[in-house]
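haha ok so turns out i had the wrong file open the whole time. this is the CORRECT one, sorry everyone. sequence first:
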Amino acid sequence: MTGAPSAYAAHAVALCAGSAVWLAIVRDTGVRRARMLFVDAPTEPRRTWSRWPRLLKALGRVTESARGRREWWCVPVAVLLAVLGGSVLPLVGGAVAVPLVRRWLRRRAGAREADRAATAVAALCGAVVGELRAGREPGQALLVALREGLAEDCSSVTPAPTGRLGEAEAAVLAAARFGGDVPAALRQAAQGPGLGGLSGMAACWRVAVDGGAGLATGLERLEATLREDRRRREELRAQLAGAWSTVVVLALLPVAGLGLGAALGAEPLRVLLHTPGGLACLAVGAFLEAAGLYWAGRIVRGGEAA
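then structure:
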């Protein structure tokens, strides 16, 4: 008989505890609803969510800094390999890799800037043609086209402070505004990377000024030629994408081999970094890897240049 009252008491305690929790939840919900409706609805959500914009902004700054200095990611990778292998050789390799990776990244950035500049030259020719068709004078048409391009660059997410024509744009603007030697300014601007089409624009300008030929017609043909060249480059780049993929796969095969050996328990880092045979294999393999990557990259870049 003593077991029944104890069971009843346990059920009563559980019922009371559940009722108390339910009442607390209901009360908290009611109070929160009343605050949102009448008292301080704007304050509590602001306090709750005000941290998120700051966190997102800090994350954006960290991401932007990491993008601007991507070559320094070699250092933590080298430190990790040095800790796992118990050797300072990965640290030396990481220190050597930082300037090489920086040079490679700068080369890629320069190629992208050259592509954007070539596209900007074609767009500039089209803009000048449009202004000439609208009845403007050649100098005024060039001035308006350059101003429109600068406004588009400034309104973009990552504006280019030098505009469409790079450092020589100020000279071209001055020549167009004050009646200077526009072809000479265009030829000077054509020395920049990706701006070779400006030399054709200067030739069209010179012929139109000296011989009285139609500038709009020449610039229109020049724009068509530049766009066709860009289309051919994009097609060639798409055809060479498979070759670049092969180069990347061949470069990652040694890393995959090290991972497979570590998964099988062979301790490849210890063998490579702490035994004479492993050090010899590491030196020969690093040399062959670098030579293979250089040779394959040279072949693919030769195809792109052709």
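The radius of gyration is 33 Å.
again sry for the mixup
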